[in-house]
Amino acid sequence: MKKIMKTTTGTYHGVMDHNHVDFLGVPFGYGRRFKRAEEFSMAKFGTNEVNKMHYAVHNGVQPMQNEALKQNNKISFGENCLNLDICTPDVDGKFPIVIEFYGGGFVQGGNYSKQMSWLDHQSVVHVVPNYRLGLFGWGVVDGGDTNVGLSDQLMAIQWVIDNANSFGGDVDNITLAGLSAGAKSIGALMSSNSHILDRIQKIMLFSGGVQTIRDLETAKRVSEMICQDNHIKSTKDLFNLTDDGLQLVQQRALNNHTATNWFGPVIDDDLISNNWTEKLVQRLKRTHFKSIISAGSNELENYKSMSIDHLENDVLPDLFGKNGEVFKQALLTKTYSKNDFVKMLGTAMYRLPARRLAGLLAEVDDAEVYCNSAKVFEGQHGGIIRYLNAPLAELNIDYRKNRQYLLNLLLEFIVSGKPYEEEIKYEWPLFDDDRLVMEVDPDDLKSVSVIDQRYSADLPWQSYKI
Prior knowledge:
Elements: E1 4-7, E2 10-13, E3 15-17, E4 20-27, E5 29-30, E6 38-39, H1 47-51, E7 53-55, E8 83-88, E9 95-101, E10 125-129, H2 134-138, H3 148-163, E11 169-179, H4 181-190, E12 202-206, H5 216-229, H6 243-254, H7 276-287, E13 290-296, H8 308-320, H9 324-331, H10 338-362, E14 369-374, H11 383-389, H12 400-416, E15 420-421, E16 426-427, E17 436-440, E18 448-450
Parallel strand pairs: 2-7, 9-10, 9-11, 11-12, 12-13, 13-14, 14-17
Antiparallel strand pairs: 1-2, 3-4, 4-8, 5-6, 8-10, 15-16, 17-18
Helix pairs in contact: 5-6, 8-10
Family: Belongs to the type-B carboxylesterase/lipase family.
Domain Carboxylesterase type B: 4-441
GO molecular function, one term: hydrolase activity
């Protein structure tokens, strides 16, 4: 099988793996401190470099994160980390493309550790781009650009569109898939002003939607708080730090905090407008993209190990800022247990945003929106992805067929846009006026529930606000 592809950023030799070809660390852009991505071009290095064969057989530089500060790290980390990995069945084919954006609270992750490995070695092209994290990608800094991480993601999508023919992808059949911060990124991308997203046919959001789109003032104050905690006079001074120095500054400020919502896409009236919900609906009406939106039944179940005092006094404001009391009043009764409080946190973080986003999209005539409530692995955050990735030998024998059926449903959605499983004659119900949701339970895939929660329209879309 051919293992070479010639792209707009160079010619690359991949490696065979399970009858697929992997290309690792392929550059798609340049990353400069607090500046939006610049297009990568081999031409800048001369004619010889354009035609030179590059071996794409090792992971590329990964985005800066706390892991980078460990001694003797075998993985290379740095600010200029804009590369992507590709797993393709055949560079001469024409297969559906899935672009995966990884999760990690916008502060950790990278394509060196794929979250959706279940997409590898299928009849699809699986692409995982890196994007900058934390302050590097999402900080609002005096003298810097906004939505730097979002610009990385946009450039990666553009690269895939421009080079699909080179790695065996069908440019007219692209799905964006993401877990947690990856899903939140996709929600923001689809709500953005970029016309590139009109080329996307399908999205799959697992435990994330649009809840981390935040106002500019909140984003500025997060950067300022980090500076204050490190006795740094101005956010502009962050330009002068080394990569490790900037990461250390962030680590010190976030230490002992649950900072899952501190970073994310920003309403800057450039890439994202204040009327982003209208932009999202307009894109759906224009392109008719199809959606799968998933949330776990008890997303933050592992928080039960924390004390109720810590949950109320530290975790709640860390996750939601001044919106914490808003969600608490709306989603809890006057008397509640610690388990109730944990369930409320998971609902406010994930289930509520998922249902509201699905409802917004479903209001559009002929919209195709599919939802599930994942009960696998106790309904925990990312449980459905863990279920899909788990080796069959690790699953109860009664659960293995259902895992395969779910995998088939998702793959059929990627291929055709219709999640249907032929062997059991099951078609995933639409999330429409009936608000039907498939309950993903290891031993009962076809269970369907009616979601009867009716949340107040006054609740904020933006989860974290200060």
